Amino acid sequence: xxxxxxxGTGPAGGAxxxxxxxxxxxxxxxxxxxxxxxxxxxxxxxRQPVHTVYxxxxxxxxDTVRNWGRQALEAFDTHAGTTAELARALGVADDxxxxxxxxxxxxxxxxxxxxxxxxxxxxxxxxxxxxxxDAAAVRAAELVAAAAADGSAxxxxxxxxxxxxxxxxxxxxxxxxxxxxxxxxxxxxxxxLVLTLPKVTYAEQVTALVRLLEDFxxxxxxxxxxxxxxxxxxxxxxxxxxxxxxxVSRMIEAAEGRATGLHYGTFDYSASCGxxxxxxxxxxxxxxxxxxxxxxxxxxxxxxxxxxxxxxVPTGSTEQVHAAWKLHHDLVRRSLARAYYQGWDMHPAHLPxxxxxxxxxYREGLEAAAARLAAYVAKAGGDVMxxxxxxxxxxxxxxxxxxxxxxxxxEVTSLTGLDRAQLDALAGR
Length: 429
What we know:
Helix content is 53%, strand content 9%.
């Protein structure tokens, strides 16, 4: 076997790539490099909420988050006041891990029951007289501005407008205009502002919102690109176009860097596929197909994914609440295992099982993930030989647990030897 030695100019023996060939390769791939950087910038590194709570605009008030937290705590204490009761409800083991999760979830419900709140002017609000919706849009913005100013707002908050279809387009645009303008007049746009565009069928509807936001930013003197938005995937046309292409990829492109998330709409999408009401669920095959397409389309783009919701409400007798909680818990765990780290919650009593499922997911795997990260950093090998891509996934897993409060930085550092900045670096943030 011959050994090739490098002398700084080329391999020994005189055979080498010419400077012209290398320059030609660079010239050939320069557009590809630029396109990759533009289309696939990777994750932003900011916190992703574990859920989005939807509240109709006419039901939203200054005390909404506090009331949701109070009702969630009441349900938790009434129907799962002990770990034994919680274990019985979910059909899991009553062990030290569950006891730890139980305590952490109760503290979370007291401290930060809602991570992301969407004030709904679409299906949850319905058609109203223009004067009524105008007033509701202004009121919502004033309440959001006040909550952001006094620190009572959740980390993320915003509105869902009506869609860009002809019948409701003007109404949706008017609501958005009033909401943004009122925010601007009341201390400016909050850092965690989120907008949601529903029932998208064509990429041009996404472009339309981009043009409106560009115009508003110019008028308001805001930095270009300041306002982003989520795209709600709840029509078949958003997944597969008439030409057979994955339409959702075109929608991400049409957002021109403003798309922050893709949110799956469980019931509208299922209905559009002809699924009868009794079988419309987050785990139906049509849901899995749509979410798989969304996942591939969003991979590497920095656009985050959110699953939908269950419409089974945890109310009534303890037996009824437990049955609804087990369904919700299992659906959330299923989503987490499929890398859908966010979902919708429609009722305060959904919050306990949202956080129980999320916290269990991150705490169960913490020690194993930490050991693999520590071995990767130390290049010690261990039971699993991980590559950089897996190290990114492992650190991302730990960071998500930290962000939602499932794990603490002190215990992560103790297990891995890594601080937050090092974890961010490993995750590519």
